[in-house]
Amino acid sequence: MTSRRSGRLDGPIRAVGVVVRERNPEIVAVLERLRSLLEGRSISVVVEEGDDGSAGAAPQFDDSSTPLDLVIALGGDGTLLRAARTVGRSEIPVLGVNLGRLGFLTAFPDAELDSGLNAVLSGQALLDYRFTLRGSIEREGEVQGDNFFALNDIVVHTSGAARVTPLTLHVGSGADQEEVGSFSADGVILATPTGSTAYSMSAGGPIIVPDVECIVVTPICPHSLAVRPLVIPASQELRIRSLDPESGHQVTVDGQVERGLAPGEAVVVEKDERPIALVRLPGQTFFRTMRHKLNWAARPPERA
User: Fold this and answer.
1) Where are the alpha helices (DSSP H) in 55-98?
2) Alpha-carbon 39 to chain mean position
3) C-alpha closest to that of 258 among 130, 159, 134
4) 204 located within any domain
5) Which of 57, 130, 205, 249 could bond to 218 as cystine, CB 3.0-4.6 Å?
6) How many domains does the chain divide into?
7) Closest residue by Cα to residue 132 from 172, 183, 88
8) Do 178 and 214 belong together in one domain?
9) Is residue 60 part of a domain?
10) Same domain, yes or no, for 33 and 66?
11) pLDDT score recorded for residue 4
12) Are residues 254 and 281 in the same domain?
């Protein structure tokens, strides 16, 4: 079955949830502008409860409010990732308004709030469906605790002092499971195409176009010149296990949620069946964003 990759944001928008990076005078001013624009169109606004912008916990909305038709993230990519955890697997679209430096996943900056919001509410906005990763921790074939989900990446690394750790990677499940190999590194990043432009890229991983359904395995500072990033079909199940029986490890989800990984446990990662719908405006393409935000293959200035 072919996964949805794009669509159009249609249908009435009656209620909007807002996730904020933090509460400071600048963001409060943008929030009030946003509230005024939406309520002026008879759209109810529900702001996340709490005011600390904590990255560790997903934002919470008042359950008594009207079901949300859209969630707006005021901040940068980190805020958008928090908002994505809010909508979870409900497929409520997420619109990012960039108040940070990079904002690779956001639709427009706060300077374009009026025109950008008008385009969204007038039916011009498009949706990009980005697949997510579902992770779990396994011990002797039994899942420990709840699943966790990532739009960008799931990272396995040592806890405490930074040091090289031996890891092994298996691909496949059941009788088809195969060991890819073992390596020593500071850790390993399992990234979606969406996350390929984040931590994975900084660690030397490739940039993957969002339409490509794959998982990028990027070792962090591997202790060997023979170990390189690996691109694996998204249909495969991945399993990371530590080879050090004495070492405790950490699992970090989208750079925000942390879980411990005890000796003898493995991290199992696979593609989740439900995507996250990100809102973008017409003309906003992946390659255009890559050139503008990352200066990819920027031409040197012409000689006078």
Assistant:
1) 77-87
2) 29
3) 159
4) yes
5) 205
6) 2
7) 88
8) yes
9) yes
10) yes
11) 62
12) no
- What CATH number is given to the structural domain containing 201? 2.60.200.30
* Interatomic CA distance for residues 125 and 142, integer angstroms: 43
The answer to whether residue 299 is domain-embedded is no
Which domain CATH number covers 77?
A: 3.40.50.10330
Q: What are the residue numbers of the active site?
A: 77
Tell me how far apart the alpha carbons of residues 34 and 30 are, in angstroms, rounded to a whole number: 6
Q: Are 48 and 59 in contact (CB under 8 A)?
A: yes
Check whether residue 186 and residue 168 sit in a common domain. yes
**Considering only CA atoms, which of 226, 149, 145, 146 is closest in space to residue 185?**
226
pLDDT in tens, 289-299: 999 889 887 77
Asked whether 216 and 229 are in contact (CB, 8 A), the reply is: yes
Three-state SS string over 91-112 comes to CCCEEEEECCCCCCCCCEEHHH
Q: Is residue 303 part of a domain?
A: no
Chain segment 144-165, per-residue pLDDT in tens: 888 999 999 999 998 877 778 9
Round to whole Å and give the CA distance between 109 and 96.
9
DSSP for residue 193 = T
Q: What is d(CA 133, CA 148) in angstroms, rounded to the nearest whole number?
A: 8
For residues 212 and 280, membership in a common domain is answered with: no
- The single-letter DSSP state of residue 206 is P
d(CA 221, CA 202): 11
Q: CA-CA distances (angstroms) from residue 240 to 30, 159, 210, 213, 249?
A: 42, 16, 24, 20, 11
Most confident of 27-31, 85-89, 187-191: 187-191
Name which of 80, 74, 104, 103 is nearest 93 in CA terms: 80
CA angle 210, 211, 215 (to 5 degrees): 65
Q: With a cut of 60, say whether residue 170 has pLDDT above it.
A: yes
